[in-house]
Amino acid sequence: MLSFGLAWQEGDYDVDLWVKGPREQAPVGFSNRIGYSLNLLRDDLGRTADPSIYNYENTFSRDVLPGEYTVNVMCWRCEATPVKYSLSITALMGDDRKDTNRIASIEGQLDANRQEVTVIQFQLDDKGKIVPESV
Questions:
Q1: CA distance 93 to 72
Q2: What is the DSSP letter of 27?
Q3: Are 115 and 126 in contact (CB under 8 A)?
Q4: Which residue from 5, 26, 92, 120 has the least number of CB within 10 angstroms?
Q5: What are phi and psi of 37, to 5 degrees?
Q6: How far apart are the first and last CA of the chain?
Q7: Cis bond leading into 82, ω under 30°?
Q8: Dihedral (C-alpha) 126, 103, 54, 73: value to the nearest 10 degrees?
Q9: Would you say 43 and 17 are in contact if contact means Cβ atoms under 8 Å apart?
Q10: Is residue 35 classed exposed, middle or buried when 0-12, 13-18 and 19+ CB atoms within 10 A define those classes?
């Protein structure tokens, strides 16, 4: 299983996480929540219908498939910028899913409303390990 976690600064910002896996027809995100092996589990809208001050989105895979992954973030509704974010990607491996492999931990910022950036592209081998030259 792969876990993609996006968090961003407190405030009324709607930032979206988009993940495209090796067998996905289209990236998984707020308008396409379920893919071949990926699911967006939380679509955070900032303060809209959300009592929490924490802003985060999570996408999980049901399996660790070999191939290329692309992760984008987009400032869907960010009237005040910049908006700082952090992205973490972890692989949970083994029969009991207790072997963890941190693939990436990245911090960045979005500088404009509706800005979308590719945060990372990488390939995984058939053992769920990152192909070193692929990042």
A1: 24
A2: -
A3: no
A4: 26
A5: -130, 0
A6: 20
A7: yes
A8: -80
A9: no
A10: buried
- Spatial separation of the C-alpha atoms in residues 32 and 30, rounded to whole Å: 6
pLDDT of residue 48: 74
Q: How far is CA 65 from CA 22, 86, 93, 115, 128, in A?
A: 7, 24, 11, 29, 7
DSSP 132: G
For residue 51, pLDDT beyond 90: no
pTM over the 0.85 mark: yes
Of the pLDDT bands very low, low, confident and very high (cuts 50, 70, 90), residue 63 is confident
d(CA 57, CA 41): 7
- As a residue count, the chain comes to 135
Interval 81-104: pLDDT, tens: 899 999 999 988 766 666 778 889
